[in-house]
Amino acid sequence: MEYLTLCKQYLKAINAGSLPLVLSLFESPEAIVRSPIYGQMTAGTYYRILFSDTRDAIIRIRHVYEALSDTPSIALHFSYTCITGNGHTVEFDGVDVFELTADETHFTKLTIIYDPTHIGLTPRLPQHPGRIGAANLDLPAYNLELKFI
Fold first, then answer.
1. How far apart are CA 111 and CA 40, in angstroms?
2. Measuring CA to CA, how many Å separate 80 from each of 69, 74, 114, 123, 137?
3. DSSP-derived secondary structure letter, 104
């Protein structure tokens, strides 16, 4: 599968709020997701929490970037609008950096980048039992060279 098709499927699954569809795009529900609000946890845990915390959400892709590295990866610059469980509307821009399987058919890892304090959110890291503790973090340095496509 071509990575742009994978990204479009991700956008469709997120906008539909479909946990099964989102998780089918990952190599495994145990794939790692790093989020400014929720910390590091498995994809299965992250999306269950995300969908339970939002009543409605829309992601619009602004730009797609392909990394010029040995590890297949792609970055999506996006605009995100959601209505939280308590009825507040939250809007922000961010970047999703996906690492892909060698055949580019599934995501293996997701790093989400945005400033949660800019939109009035406070990281809730200790509250989620699915979060992987800091002692277990293996944080590689990211040095992506991006080409515009």
1. 9
2. 27, 18, 11, 17, 27
3. S
CATH number given to 3-128? 3.10.450.50
Which residue is associated with the tokens 């973090």? Answer: 137
Does residue 74 sit in helix, strand or coil?
Answer: strand
21 phi, psi to nearest 5 deg: -65, -45
CA distances from 22 to 3, 48, 63 (A): 15, 10, 20
Domain boundaries, the chain: 3-128
Tokens 């944080």 map to which residue? 139
Angle at alpha carbon of residue 131, lines to 138 and 8, rounded to 5°: 85
- Residues 3, 74 contacting (CB under 8 angstroms): yes
The answer to whether the predicted template modeling score (pTM) of the entire model surpasses 0.85 is no
For 61-101, write each residue's pLDDT tens digit: 899 998 888 889 999 999 988 887 788 888 889 999 999 99
Q: Are 76 and 64 a contacting pair, CB within 8 Å?
A: yes
Residue 52's contacts (CB-CB under 8 Å, 6 or more residues apart) are 85
